[in-house]
Amino acid sequence: MKFMTIAQGLLIASLATAATAGEMIITSENPQNHWKSGEIDKLAKAIEEKSGGNISTTTYHANLYKGDREAVEAIGTGSVHMVWPACPRMEALVPELGILSLPFTLSAEEMATPEFQAKVVAAFAPALAEKGFALLGVARATEVMFVGSSPLSSFSDLEGKKIRVPGSPLFKALMGAFGASSISLPASELATALSQGAIDAAFTSPSSWRNIGVRGAKYGLVPSNLLVGTYCIVADKAWLDGLDTSDKAAVEDATAELMRTQWTVAYENDLKSLDAMVEAGAELVVLKDTSEFRAATEELRKEYMLKYESIAKALAD
After folding, report:
1. I want to staple 127 with a disulfide (CB 3.0 to 4.6 A). Which of 59, 76, 96, 306 is the partner?
2. Burial of 245 by CB count in 10 Å (0-12 exposed, 13-18 middle, 19+ buried)?
3. pLDDT tens, position by position, 183-193
């Protein structure tokens, strides 16, 4: 398995050459020290070992070659073979994935079991296959939470607030259901926007809260199981199907084995970030009674489930 230096990565990006048949390029926009990068590197090594060296993997991190959005667009060109984008980022191509971002849809406890994970993948795989993607896994990204510069301890505390959300249309609709207004801006601007009052809160992750720090956002609210963010582990379907049977199995089996522990790894990283913020003086509320959140989002859930009835039924089954 090869890791690219910045100079090498820039050279390859500028040449934009497709990989040879024995090469597998995996990209990520997360920095090298992010836990997701470590999981991708682990997977790349396992694929090489399981293929007996037939597949030579190269991993790029920190936008060194392509960001996740660019990598998704490059699937099918031969220049990228696997990427782990946040599932909401793929909604524009595969709208059915919006179901994964519905509140109270994925249980973290159930998704920690390989058998349940496999059923979820099977429900969505046909829709992605139509777009040229092989869905090999649905990985845990983070449990989504609210952070802000004023107290957050209940559903009513969100009313009237300006809340930064990622670009997903569903997330914007959720803020409306909570009585708040949604604001879109880059994650890198969160701390500044909070300190200047451009936003009151952010719908984000424990690790992002840790990056903002206590001075930027002293208060955190986690409505239990409201929403577990996910990564879609997707490969170039034509490339994968074109591999020898044993090499294709190496990619699929290595990914399946990684997924046996991935949800636990990501969960533990959330806990580390939350514990670090509390130790630094932040105030965290983990809300067990989420009945108000459930009631507020029920109509939105029904709308999506009716729109994508076949997948909804597969998930229910």
Report:
1. 96
2. exposed
3. 988 878 889 99
